[in-house]
Amino acid sequence: MNIPDIIIAIDGYSSTGKSTLAKLIAGQYSFLYLDSGAMYRGVTLHALENGIIDNSGAIDEARLKTALETLDLDFRIDGTYIGERRVEQEIRTLEVSSHVSPVSAIPFVRSFVDAKLHAFGQRKRVVMDGRDIGTTVFPDAEIKIFMTATPEVRARRRFDEMKAKGQDPVMEEVMKNLLERDHIDSHREVSPLSRAADAYVLDNSDMTLHEETVWFQGLCQGKFGILE
Ligand code: DC
Predict the structure, then answer these.
(1) Burial environment of residue 129 by CB neighbours within 10 A (0 to 12, 13 to 18, 19 or more)
(2) Which residue in 22, 66, 145, 200 has a CA-CA distance of 20 to 30 Å to 131?
(3) Is the CB of 101 within 6 Å of ligand 1?
(4) What is the pLDDT of residues 176-209, one digit of tens each?
(5) Are strands 7-12 and 79-82 parallel, antiparallel or unpaired?
(6) 9 C-alpha to center of ligand 1: Å?
(7) 178 to each of 13, 152, 181, 184, how far by Cα in Å?
(8) Which protein residue has the closest C-alpha to ligand 1 atom 11?
(9) Is the C-beta atom of 134 inside 6 A of ligand 1?
(10) Which three-class secondary structure state does DSSP give residue 219?
(11) Burial of residue 149 (number of CB atoms within 10 Å: 0-12, 13-18, 19+)
């Protein structure tokens, strides 16, 4: 099956499996996968490593703004980089997860990341996941998907993912972090997480990945009249 040169925007709550589906679509249809959350995580990691976020979680916004002027944050084929350092593991820790939502709510951080995302979107054949891709970053994306699942299912997925990476998560902390991020991401002033009016909702609480891809194929067939 082939689909035209379009942008596919996948938004939704934390740990709904956005990146899993996005990567699968990218592989199946030869699209470029871009993880916008990784950019916010990269900024957060840099802030933590440079003492711009203190132990109480307070963010020194003036210092962060200056730091962004020289921060060389990039997507490469094998993941996220700060300068020549690959930070794919470091940006996925619970420490980064618990500071990333307040960082991503800062308007100048969003402008910094948006500029990078727009540059990548110029090439089309892109599938990008995040919180505001279909509403703000690419409001004209030809396909918009809004993913959701119950908090229990999401917490379990995140827990299993962290375990598989050799981390030692505590379920209560994972759930707390998830709900806190949902709240901050949905209630911030700039580009809050919300469903675009023209997004297709995918609740995958009780779906297998295979069922999700079948759902996506059905969506493409309906939209572009493409048959396998
Ligand atoms: O998708 P993720 O969990 O890796 O994203 C990390 C955080 O980044 C998330 O809690 C909110 C923020 N984010 C955002 O505000 N806008 C996006 N487009 C993507 C992520």
Answers:
(1) buried
(2) 66
(3) yes
(4) 999 998 999 999 999 899 999 999 999 999 999 9
(5) unpaired
(6) 13
(7) 9, 10, 5, 10
(8) 101
(9) no
(10) helix
(11) buried
Report the alpha-carbon distance of residue 56 to residue 170 in Å, rounded: 21
* Predicted TM-score of the model (pTM): 0.92
Q: Which amino acid is at 91?
A: I
| Segment 56-91, tens digit of pLDDT | 999 999 999 999 999 999 988 899 999 999 999 999
- List the beta bridge partners of residue 9: 128, 144
Q: What are the structural domains of the chain?
A: 7-220 (3.40.50.300)
d(CA 111, CA 132): 13
The residue assigned the tokens 């003492």 is 51
Which of the four pLDDT bands, split at 50, 70 and 90, describes residue 137?
Answer: very high
Answer yes or no: is pLDDT of 15 > 80.
Answer: yes
Give strand ranges (E) for 83-185. Answer: 85-86, 126-130, 143-148
